[in-house]
Amino acid sequence: MLNMTRTLVRASLCTLFFAALPLTLHAAHPLVSDDTGTQGRGNLQLELTTEISHDEGPEAEETAGEAAAVLSWGASDNIDVVVGMPFGWYDCSQEGISREESGAGDLSLELKWRVLDVEGRGLSVALKPHLTVPTGDHDRGFGNGRVGGGTTLIISKEGVLGQLHANVGYSRNGYGSSEARDALRRDIWHASFAAGINVTPQLVAVGDIGVETAEEQGDHEHPAFLIGGLIWSVSPDLDLDAGIRTGLNDAESATTWLAGLAMRF
Fold first, then answer.
1. Who contacts 50 (Cβ-Cβ below 8 Å, separation ≥6)?
2. pLDDT digits (tens, 9 = 90+) for 194-205
3. How far apart are CA 11 and CA 126, in angstroms?
4. Which of 7, 146, 203, 229 is deepest in the core (most CB within 10 A)?
5. What share of the chain is helix, strand, coil (3-state, %, to 5)?
6. What's the pTM value of the predicted model, to 2 decimals?
7. How far is CA 21 from CA 90, 161, 207, 223, in A?
8. Angle, alpha carbons 59-62-67 (nearest 5°)
9. Rounded Cα distance, 82 and 44, in Å
């Protein structure tokens, strides 16, 4: 009985892992780094994205995916209100115990405020506070079970050849179970740097590198990632994107495939 209990506890870490996945919204998928761009007063953008990853380790094998719908509305020329709803699924096997689940995650609310534009230099600064509402089923591994929040500082530089973006962010996570509170950190820091190169007027090659605080208590290897991808502007109101995200250490998923589209109204 004791051995079975220990095994079930280990398997439950799969649920804790996916419950703790950050469901922050990204601006120009497939990038993680956000930019300071806003939609403009009264304009709307709908972004549909999907991500699929697979990990194999000595103790567990995990396949996970997430699809998200993100709606951005221009409250003014320099302020966007952003709402996002993710839907996730995972299949986790550990020591002969397999768990497969799917469901909606936590609703995300953001306010992107471009606070500074340096005229003639293409330099701008934005703040992006965010809030997560516990709409997901925490017991099944979707969402944290409590309200969370944080903010991100964004700096963008536009040039003839492309763009540069730097992000520094902080999130304070709330967890709805004592197991998650004991196993996972509440304070998560994130830093990333992205670049886009204008290959043609319609095609942009993008890259992103970043690191964030490890979520498990006592884990001192912080996940670091590298992303490469393309964004194709089919028309002024439609973008298609694809990319691949790879881990730079064992704390990050080995490979994640990314795809999405953005429609503006």
1. 65, 66, 67, 68, 258, 259, 260
2. 999 999 999 999
3. 41
4. 229
5. 10, 60, 30
6. 0.85
7. 12, 34, 22, 12
8. 160
9. 10
Mean pLDDT of 28-40: 94
Give the rounded percent of residues in the chain with a pLDDT score beyond 70: 89
144 compared with 237, residue with greater pLDDT: 237
Q: Which fold has domain 2-264?
A: Porin (2.40.160)
Give CA–CA dist 16/213, Å, rounded: 16
pLDDT mean over 215-230: 92
Cα-based torsion angle of the residue sequence 234, 27, 257, 141 in order, rounded to the nearest 10 degrees: -140
Q: What percent of the chain has pLDDT over 90?
A: 65
**pLDDT top residue among 4 and 133:** 133
Would you say 158 and 28 are in contact if contact means Cβ atoms under 8 Å apart?
Answer: no
What is the per-residue pLDDT for 74? 97
* HEC sequence for 76-138: ECCEEEEEEEEEEEEEEEECCEEEEEEEECCEEEEEEEEEEEECCCCEEEEEEEEEEECCCCH
Say how many CA atoms lie within 13 Å of 186 toward its Cβ: 14
